[in-house]
Design goal:
Length: 120
């Protein structure tokens, strides 16, 4: 999957949170990201962000930069409780990748560790 640029990540975060908070529909968010920002991976990002908010496993890989950005924004917007849920999703994603034998688990483990240290 091609990496999205920083502007796309920021817009994807905003739209993903709007969808999660029932301010936009899933299809409306995907349409905006695909049509206005030419983001082919729109549904992946929206689904992953939903999993971050719920603390559930996500199965599609996003970039290290975007993972850090999303975790930072979630901490800023939803505090340590929101961040803990998001980190739980990251932990489950790492476990999923280990079973699959794919992905850059080392980078994700480091991100997870650094954000967990911020909470302590």
């Amino acid at each position: 999957m091609p990496e999205i640029n920083e502007e796309m990540a920021k817009v994807a975060y905003k739209i993903g949170m709007d969808i999660f908070d029932n301010k936009k529909s899933f299809m409306e968010g995907v349409r905006i990201l695909r049509d206005d920002y030419k983001m082919n991976s729109a549904s992946i990002y929206i689904n992953n962000l939903s999993k971050f908010r719920k603390g559930e496993v996500y199965k599609r890989i996003i970039s290290k930069r975007d993972t850090i950005y999303f975790l930072s924004k979630i901490k800023q917007d939803y505090g340590n409780n929101g961040l803990l849920k998001a980190l739980n999703a990251v932990k489950k994603h790492i476990e999923y990748l280990e079973i699959q034998g794919t992905g850059n688990k080392k980078a994700l483990k480091q991100i997870y560790k650094e954000f967990m240290e911020e909470i302590k």
